Amino acid sequence: MNGDHRESYAMAGFAFFGIGSEPSETLIRSECTQITSMSAKSAILIAGPLAAVGLSDDEVLVARPYPDDLEARVKAFMSVKRGEVISEVREVVSELASNGYKRILVSPSSLLIALAREFAGLELGELDRPVDLEKVLVRSGVVDSIEEYRVEVKRVLDRLVEEELKEAVARRDMMIVHAIHVLEDLDKQINMIYTRCREWYGLHFPELAEVVDDLEDYMKIVAEMGARRNFDEGKLGRIVGSKLADEIIERTRSSVGADLSPEDEEMVKDVAREGLRLIQLRKEQERYIEELMSAEAPNLSAVAGPILGAKLISMAGGLEKLARLPASTIQVLGAEKALFRFFRTGRGAPKHGIIFQSPLIHGSPKHLRGKIARALAAAIAIAAKIDYFTREDRGAELREKLEKRLQEIREKYKAPPAKKPMPREKPERPKKPRRPMRRR
Hints:
This protein is an alpha/beta fold. The protein has helices at 3-12, 29-37, 70-81, 87-98, 112-118, 133-140, 146-170, 172-202, 208-211, 215-225, 233-240, 242-253, 262-296, 298-304, 306-316, 319-323, 327-331, 336-345, 359-362, 369-390, 395-412, and strands at residues 42-47, 51-56, 59-65, 103-107, 123-126.
C-alpha cells in the first residue's frame, strides 16, 4: 500500500478515535473557537465508518448506524468522505436541531459545505478536539464491545482502500501518464538504434551522414538499398528528394568506406528496419496521446499542446494534482535541480522548466522567455482546473486570451534590456613580505 492510501486509511477512521488527531488549518478554525467558547447550546456530529452520532458533553444524544452489509457501509462512508449528506447524517442533524442545538461541530470537515446548504439556520464549524469514538459507539449500543468495533472498522477501511485503489487505476488521466512514459522510452530507443546504425553503416558509406541528417530518412535508405552499389537515383528521390539524391549518388563515386559483404549488409539493414518499426510505433503512440488528451484535457491540450500537456500531467502525477498546483510551480516543473540550486546559492533562478519545450517559449527572444513562461504557466493552470473540475471545453477562448497576452508582452518589451555594467573589482594590494622573527 503506498503512502497516499495509508494516509487515506488513517483519515478514514482512526482520526475519529482520538489517536493522533490534531486541529486542521482551515478557515473554519476561528469559527470553531468562537462556537466552543460561547455559552449557547452546542453539539457534536461525527460521521464515522460505522455510524453517524450526535453528542453533547460526551453524552450520546442520537446515533444512526449504517446498514450491516459491508458494501453498504463502505458506500455510505465513501459518500461522507466526498462531502455528501447521507440519510443517517441528515437524520442526526435534524434531531439535534429539533432538540434546540443550533451550533454543531462537524467531523469530518468535508460535510460542512453540504450541511451549510441544507441546514441554513444552523451555525456549523469543524470539530477541533479528539473524541473517543470507540467508547461512544459502545455506550450508544451500535456495537457490543471495543474489540467488535475495531474488527468492523478494519473491515470497512480495508474495503474502502480497495475501492479507492480501483478508482485511482481506472482514471483516464493515468493512461496519459503511462502513455507519455512509453513515448519517452521510445525516443531513447530510436536515438540509440539510429546511433548504432549510423556508426555501423558509416564504416561502409561515411559520407551519407554528412548529406542526410534526418534519422528516419537515413534508416530508410539503409533498410531499402543497403550497400552503396545498390543506390538508385529514383528510389533515393522518393525518400529525400531529387536534389539530395543527386548529391548522394555523387558521394557514392568518391566514398572512402570499406565494402560490405552480403551477410554484413543484411544485418545492418535489419537494424535499420528495427529503427523504422520503432518510429512507426512512436507515431501511433503520439496519435493515441493526442486523442486521449482531446477527450480528457481539451483545454490543456489547446493551450500547451497535447504532448507537452501530457508531460505536465505525468510530472505532476495526474490531472487532479496538476489542477491543484499554482502557476508558479507549473512554470518551473521539471527544473527542480536548478530551483534547489537557486535556494542553496541564491543565484540563477530558473525561469522555466519543461514548458520550455513549447514553441511559444523556445521560439521567442531570450529576454522575453521568462515573461512568456509566466503567462503560459498561468494559462496552463487555468486550463487544468477547468479540465478537472468543470470539464467544459473552453480551449479556443483560453488560447485566444493567451495569444493576446503574448502579443502585449512582445509589443511592450521589443528591445532587450540594457546590460548592467559589471562591478569593477578592486585591485588587490601586494602583500608585504613578512619579516623574519629575530631570535633573542
